[in-house]
């Protein structure tokens, strides 16, 4: 059995807004094991970014209310002080953001940016040695001529190269967990393929666990070991990649998979969309959150919040159709 | 054969930035038939949006001509241009920034009708109520402001606005890129239904090769301002000829692995050149796995290789060379 690195228990994220409290993440449970890649997939606004940012407490501090437990090596990160958190971010748990254009500092050379984070966590390392580590990192993520590029500013690099710099920055201190928030969404498809290959390579090389957020099911299929499907702030299904794609259980997952354009199917078949839109999380929800868009909805779905059922070993689905009362 | 609805002839568009001249479109020629959809695909910066904007005369081309129903677009006088604006519309990529936040959905959709004075003020409200129902919104939505809608609903407002003047031709500039997958499918299905019902002609610009297949009759692939391949939509997926098209297709992450055909393309490793760096030769040569000496010195011309299938690649002219390049790879 692999070692459990991160254990999230009943995590809630609430944002204070002018229109009331927005309950973005409504009680999620999951764990990350050593050396695995976990994917979180869902539509925009389903709470996937809010949940992942909560793991390193990067949500806006004064308007976010976090509740639950994020256990990293037995300690609850939600109880850490800001100073303690700074020791975790970058060193233990690192993050790559969606937009490599805005997440790098435009006034610093890329080498110095990576060096800055490294010096924060290893203050006693001599500067020349730190510089070598940074160059090694740049080489590892596939940046040609690292010595020259060390002194380059972000605006002189292409989107794909900047995302490589972000990855180097995130991995410089050899974190145990890498959180990747839509790392390829802003990139072209050929560059996306390169970055996904790089993530796979890094994983093999360093054994870092990766938590990958995306809205793209096909990215999940190519990179992840395990998948969590989120809808309206909850994890509604979780399983290994093979199981999820071959035997999806939750009606939302089934419909999500059917909506993906496939190259191996005739093109005159209409695409299967999901009618309607996800619920507004400012309002409190009664019953199953997917119920208004679900074709299989029963009367009970409007009244009861579905608990999570273990359909098979390691395959969880939160749908009342698995309830003993509903199975005929 | 009847003459095409829209014909682009040797279209070139350059921008001058400081002392640099950037060629966004380089000698592009293609045609669009009536009531058909031409998909225009390529990576960011390849000139696909500029092509769309030139087609609507939102940009003036540096050279070349566009014929709209046989009439030269760039020579239209103001009256002709005004009536052309009625017939050709655009749907923008970003449903967040392309709607005026201070206007209600109703006013946004009614504005083109008021400008072109098509309907009496009294008739407008019933007409737009009918229109929004057609795009799948309820008439009560007309009183609301853009920020009250979701991304998919906003895109429907953009579509209703484009349809208000009963146009014949619509440029869809990445209309689905900002949306979630199930919502993308909704919008594609809506656009297809509207085309069938109203006989619309679309230029569908996107970087999403998997989605464009569902709506296009023909697909044009652009790379750094050049048209590299143009063919029937099915043909492109079954028999991609240009190495760039092959690379694009193989880079699409698939849920179920597609059957690896003998022509499965190797992944492209490098990044595209900056447009000002291409002086001679094939623009794709630096990333192409089959590049020969000739590719760096001589620009390949667009050749017809089978009916309705055009490719700009030196390898295609020489079948044996192409086969040997492939066999070396595998």
Give an overview in words.
- The complex is a heterodimer of chains A (328) and B (330).
- The mean pLDDT of chain A is 90.
- In chain A, 31% of the residues lie in helices and 24% in strands.
- Chain A has two domains: 4-92 and 176-272, P-loop containing nucleotide triphosphate hydrolases (Rossmann fold, 3-Layer(aba) Sandwich); 102-174, no CATH class.
- The two termini of chain A are 37 Å apart.
- Chain A has an eight-stranded mixed sheet with strand order 6-7-8-3-9-10-12-11, with helices on both faces.
- In chain A, a hairpin with a 2-residue loop joins strand 4 and strand 5.
- With 328 residues, chain A is α/β, with parallel strands linked by helices.
- Helix content of chain B is 35%, strand content 22%.
- In chain B, the strands form two sheets. In chain B, strands 6-7-8-3-9-10-12-11 form an eight-stranded mixed sheet, sandwiched between helices.
- Chain B has twelve helices and twelve strands.
- Chain B is globular, with a radius of gyration of 21 Å.
- Chain B is of the alpha/beta class.
- Chain B has a domain at 240-330.
- Chain B has helices at 48-55, 78-87, 105-115, 121-134, 151-163, 181-198, 209-215, 233-238, 243-251, 293-297, 314-317, 319-329; strands at 6-17, 20-32, 37-41, 63-68, 71-72, 88-91, 169-173, 201-206, 218-223, 226-232, 303-306, 309-311.
- In chain B, helix 3 crosses helix 4 (121-134), helix 3 packs parallel to helix 5 and helix 4 (121-134) packs across helix 5.
- The chains are: A alpha/beta (328), B alpha/beta (330).
């Amino acid at each position: 059995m692999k070692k459990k690195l991160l254990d999230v228990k009943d995590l809630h994220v609430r944002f204070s807004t002018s229109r009331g409290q927005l309950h973005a993440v409504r009680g999620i449970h999951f764990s990350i094991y050593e050396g695995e890649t976990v994917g979180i997939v869902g539509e925009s606004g389903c709470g996937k970014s809010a949940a992942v940012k909560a793991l390193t407490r990067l949500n806006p501090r004064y308007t976010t209310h976090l509740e639950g437990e994020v256990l990293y090596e037995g300690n609850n990160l939600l109880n850490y002080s800001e100073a303690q958190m700074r020791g975790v971010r970058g060193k233990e748990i690192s993050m790559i953001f969606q937009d490599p254009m805005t997440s790098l500092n435009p006034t610093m050379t890329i080498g110095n940016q990576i060096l800055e984070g490294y010096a924060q966590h290893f203050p006693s390392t001599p500067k020349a040695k730190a510089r070598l580590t940074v160059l090694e990192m740049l080489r590892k993520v596939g940046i040609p001529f690292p010595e020259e590029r060390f002194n380059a500013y972000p605006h002189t690099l292409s989107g794909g190269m900047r995302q490589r710099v972000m990855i180097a920055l995130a991995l410089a201190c050899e974190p145990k967990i890498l959180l990747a928030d839509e790392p390829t969404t802003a990139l072209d498809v050929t560059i996306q393929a390169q970055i996904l290959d790089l993530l796979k390579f890094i994983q093999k090389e360093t054994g870092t666990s990766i938590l990958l957020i995306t809205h793209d099911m096909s990215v999940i299929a190519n990179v992840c070991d395990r998948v969590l499907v989120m809808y309206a702030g909850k994890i509604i299904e979780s399983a290994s990649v093979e199981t999820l794609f071959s035997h999806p259980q939750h009606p939302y997952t089934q419909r999500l998979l059917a909506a993906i354009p496939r190259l191996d199917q005739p093109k005159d078949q209409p695409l299967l969309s999901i009618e309607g839109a996800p619920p507004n999380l400012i309002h409190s929800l009664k019953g199953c959150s997917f119920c208004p868009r679900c074709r299989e909805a029963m009367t009970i779905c409007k009244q009861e919040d579905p608990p999570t059922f273990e359909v098979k070993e390691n395959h969880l689905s939160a749908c009342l159709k698995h309830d003993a009362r509903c199975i005929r | 054969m009847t003459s095409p609805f829209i014909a682009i002839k040797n279209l070139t568009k350059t921008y001058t930035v400081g002392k640099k001249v950037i060629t966004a479109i380089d000698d592009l020629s293609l045609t669009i038939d009536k009531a058909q959809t031409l998909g225009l695909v390529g990576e960011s910066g390849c000139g696909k949006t500029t092509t769309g904007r030139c087609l609507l005369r939102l940009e003036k081309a540096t050279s070349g001509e566009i014929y709209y129903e046989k009439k030269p677009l760039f020579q239209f006088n103001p009256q002709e241009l005004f009536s052309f604006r009625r017939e050709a519309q655009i749907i923008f990529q970003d449903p967040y920034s392309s709607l005026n936040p201070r206007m209600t959905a109703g006013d946004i959709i009614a504005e083109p009708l008021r400008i072109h004075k098509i309907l009496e003020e009294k008739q407008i409200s019933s007409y737009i109520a009918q229109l929004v129902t057609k795009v799948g919104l309820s008439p009560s939505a007309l009183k609301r402001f853009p920020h009250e809608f979701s991304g998919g609903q906003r895109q429907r407002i953009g579509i209703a606005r484009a349809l208000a003047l009963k146009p014949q031709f619509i440029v869809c500039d990445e209309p689905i890129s900002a949306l979630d997958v199930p919502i993308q499918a909704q919008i594609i299905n809506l656009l297809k239904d509207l085309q069938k019902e109203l006989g619309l002609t679309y230029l569908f610009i996107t970087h999403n090769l998997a989605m464009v297949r569902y709506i296009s009759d023909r697909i044009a692939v652009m790379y750094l301002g050049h048209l590299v391949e143009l063919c029937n939509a099915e043909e492109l997926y079954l028999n991609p000829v240009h190495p760039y098209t092959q690379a694009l297709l193989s880079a699409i992450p698939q849920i179920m692995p597609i059957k690896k055909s003998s022509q499965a393309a190797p992944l492209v490793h490098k990044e595209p050149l900056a447009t000002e760096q291409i002086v001679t030769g094939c623009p794709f040569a630096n990333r192409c796995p089959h590049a020969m000496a000739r590719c760096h010195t001589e620009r390949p011309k667009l050749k017809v290789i089978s009916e309705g299938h055009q490719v700009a690649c030196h390898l295609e002219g020489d079948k044996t060379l192409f086969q040997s390049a492939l066999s070396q790879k595998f």
